[in-house]
Write a structure and sequence with these properties.
The chain is an alpha/beta fold and 238 residues long. The chain contains eight helices and seven strands, in the order H-H-H-E-H-E-H-E-E-H-E-H-H-E-E.
């Protein structure tokens, strides 16, 4: 993705957060501009052309705002000819434990042209609705090991045969970059009004092994950037 397109996307997607206040807007603008996962979402073939999204640990709903902005730019012919058409959201359901984040998401996504639902709750006992795409970005390490496995098994059971899970996890064997990621994740939770979290991390090889045992096939996409040790995993039922 070109720098010019990324700047336009960041500007349009973050503008939705102005009604939620300066902190929400600055956080959205900084996260969308610096986190490489958002540019990765526009890689050809990573996501289906259209689908229902379940965003677990959705935070402020940045994923929905980003793809909505991409769809708007594409529809308005402000889209490079060499860049494939962006994936479209047909319906979006977000869940998060932080009330502040959900409030900001509701304000930012209030005028979406696709059905949007945002719930405050715990994904460990959340009944998973039907979805074509389930996303878990930097979320699983907040859960104890058994809860990680239980959630992934429930996702495996709920996904349709052509559905996909998009995960971003830290590599617990990556040394200093991994520790930096843990500090940043913990600070974000605190800034959004949560308590200081206890994190439960695994090496990347352990994540891959667990997903295989649960009946998934996995394609990794390195997510190095800003000194962190993250990996993006596209996961599909076998």
């Amino acid at each position: 993705m070109s720098e010019s397109l990324q700047r336009r996307l960041v500007r349009q997607a973050s503008a939705s957060y102005r009604p939620a206040g300066p902190w929400a807007w600055h956080f959205a603008r900084g996260k969308l501009a610096r986190d490489p996962v958002f540019a990765a979402l526009l890689r050809p073939g990573l996501l289906p052309a259209t689908g229902r999204y379940l965003d677990l640990g959705c935070g402020q709903g940045l994923l929905a705002s980003w793809l909505r902005a991409a769809t708007a730019l594409h529809a308005g012919h402000d889209w490079p000819a060499e860049q494939p058409a962006p994936p479209r959201i047909s319906a979006y359901h977000g869940l998060d434990m932080q009330a502040t984040a959900i409030r900001h998401a509701r304000q930012a996504l209030a005028d979406c042209d696709f059905p949007t639902r945002l719930d405050l709750g715990d994904l460990r006992d959340f009944a998973l609705p039907d979805a074509d795409v389930i996303t878990l970005f930097d979320v699983l390490h907040y859960l104890p090991g058994t809860a990680q496995e239980s959630l992934l098994q429930r996702i495996r059971d709920s996904l349709p045969p052509d559905g996909r899970l998009l995960l971003r996890v830290g590599d617990g064997a990556a040394g200093l970059p991994h520790h930096l990621s843990r500090v940043v994740d913990s600070l974000v939770v605190r800034l959004q009004g949560g308590t200081w979290p206890r994190l439960h991390c695994r090496p990347a090889t352990a994540w891959l092994g667990l997903l295989g045992e649960l009946g998934f096939r996995v394609e990794p996409f390195p997510m190095a950037g800003a000194g962190f040790a993250n990996v993006l995993l596209r996961v599909r039922p076998i």
